[in-house]
C-alpha cells in the first residue's frame, strides 16, 4: 500500500520538474519570437528598396538576363528546405518536410530531378536517416539567421544555377520551401520559386500611379542588372529565413505551452490518486485496528 | 535650397535616415556626387566610403558595395553590409 503512494509522489515530482523546463522554454521562445518578428520588420526597408530598384529596371528595359530567363529544358531542380536546428516545436519541422516531399514528388512527375539543399539540423537528420543524398547543408543558426548566411547560400545557389546542367551538375530551377509567418497562431509551409526570378512587388504593392521616373543607369543597364539580381536573390532568401525563424519560435512557444498545460493536468491527476491511496491506507488501518480490538474483546 | 532626403539601408536594418545637402559615393566609374535636383539615377556602388554632407558636418559610412538610387531628391543607398561607426548622430 505504502509503495503505491510513494510511486504516485515520485511521478508528481518528475512531472513537476518537466513542467519547470517546458515553462522555461515557453517563456524563452516567447521572448525570442518578439525579436524574430522585429528582425523581419527591420529587413523590410532593404527588401522594399531592392524590389523597387529591380522593378524599375524591369520596367525601363527589355533587358533579358540569365537569372530571369526560363531555360528551354529543365532537367534538374534545386529544392531549398528551411527547417529548424532543434526539435520541441510541435509539427514545425515535419510540416515543412512534408511540404518539401510533395514538391519533390511533383517535380519528379514533371520529369525533373530534384536536388536538395538543407538548412537546419532537422532536415539533415531526416535525410541522413533515410540515406538520401543532398547537395549542401547549413546548420546552427536557424533561430537567428544572419544576413551573411543568406548571402553564402544565395551565392551558392546562383552559382549552381549558372553552371551547365549536364556537365557540371548545375540546376535549372530553384525552389524554396519555408514556413511563412502569418501570425502568432498561424504559420504556413509555403513553396516559392526563387530562380529563374519572377519579380514580384513585395507584400505592399505600390499605389496606382506611382510611376517610376526615367532612370539613368550607371554604368549601364546590363551591369546594374548583373549586380542587382544576385542581391535580390539574397534578400528574398534572407526574408524566407527570417520568417522561418519567427515561425519556428512561435511553434515552439505553442508546443511548450501545451506541454506545460499537460504537465499541470498530470500533477492534478496524480495528486488525486495519491490522496485516494493514502485515504485507502488509513481506512484499512482503522478497520484492522477495530477488527483486532473486537477479536480481543470476544476472546476475553 | 531644397534638400536631399537620404536613406542608408543595410540588409538587416535601416542604418540612417535624414536630410543632406550633398551625398558622395564611389561607383564603378569613380566618385559619384549627388546634389539636390539630380536626374533620376540607379547606380552600382563599389566597396568604399559614403559621405553625407548635412547639418552639423559630414557623416561617413563604409559599405561593401551596393546601390544608389536617386529619384526626386530622394536618395536611397542600399548595401548588404554597412559599417556605420563614422555616422554619429
UniProtKB/TrEMBL annotation, chain A:
Keyword line: ATP synthesis, Cell membrane, CF(1), Coiled coil, Hydrogen ion transport, Ion transport, Membrane, Transport
Stated membrane topology is:
Peripheral membrane protein
Tell me where in or outside the cell this protein is found.
Answer: Cell membrane; Membrane
GO MF entries = ATP binding; proton-transporting ATP synthase activity, rotational mechanism
Spell out the coiled coil positions from the record: 249-283
Which GO cellular component term is one of those annotated? Answer: plasma membrane
Gene Ontology biological process terms in this record: proton motive force-driven plasma membrane ATP synthesis
Q: What is its main location?
A: membrane
A Pfam family hit: ATP-synt
Assembly and partners are described as: F-type ATPases have 2 components, CF(1) - the catalytic core - and CF(0) - the membrane proton channel. CF(1) has five subunits: alpha(3), beta(3), gamma(1), delta(1), epsilon(1). CF(0) has three main subunits: a, b and c.
What's this protein's family per the entry?
Belongs to the ATPase gamma chain family.
Function noted in UniProt:
Produces ATP from ADP in the presence of a proton gradient across the membrane. The gamma chain is believed to be important in regulating ATPase activity and the flow of protons through the CF(0) complex.
Q: What is this protein's record name?
A: ATP synthase gamma chain
Q: Which organism is it from?
A: Knoellia subterranea KCTC 19937
Organism lineage string: Bacteria, Bacillati, Actinomycetota, Actinomycetes, Micrococcales
Encoding gene per record = atpG
UniProtKB/TrEMBL annotation, chain B:
Query: How does this protein sit in the membrane?
Result: Peripheral membrane protein
Domain of life the protein comes from = Bacteria
Q: Which residues form the ATP synthase F1 complex delta/epsilon subunit N-terminal domain?
A: 4-81
- Molecular function GO labels: ATP binding; proton-transporting ATP synthase activity, rotational mechanism
Q: Does the keyword Lipid metabolism apply?
A: no
Q: What is its main location?
A: membrane
One Pfam family hit:
ATP-synt_DE_N
Q: Which UniProt keywords apply?
A: ATP synthesis, Cell membrane, CF(1), Hydrogen ion transport, Ion transport, Membrane, Transport
Described function: Produces ATP from ADP in the presence of a proton gradient across the membrane.
Identify its protein family.
Belongs to the ATPase epsilon chain family.
- Identify this protein by name: ATP synthase epsilon chain
